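EI: anyone free to look at a 81-residue chain?
SC: sure, send it
EI:
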Amino acid sequence: DSFTYTKTHEMINRDGSSSQYEISCLSGWKIRDAISVLLRVIFQVNLTAKLPSEKEEEIREFVGSILQLMKTLKAESLRKE
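SC: here you go
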């Protein structure tokens, strides 16, 4: 998943020392769910299964454009770091 990332957390121990640990943030399901919500709002349906099949190609293009925009923005933000 190209949108998975790692967060570094720092913990202060009782003795005042600190330690760091990393957590992997898997975002694939969150992205899928967010796009699903957008599509259901656009087509005013309560289930993804109820999306109009005749709009499948438009939906595919819509999802593709969202993912491409996300990839572009991610690449730009990484260049600024």
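EI: The mean pLDDT is 91.
SC: 👍
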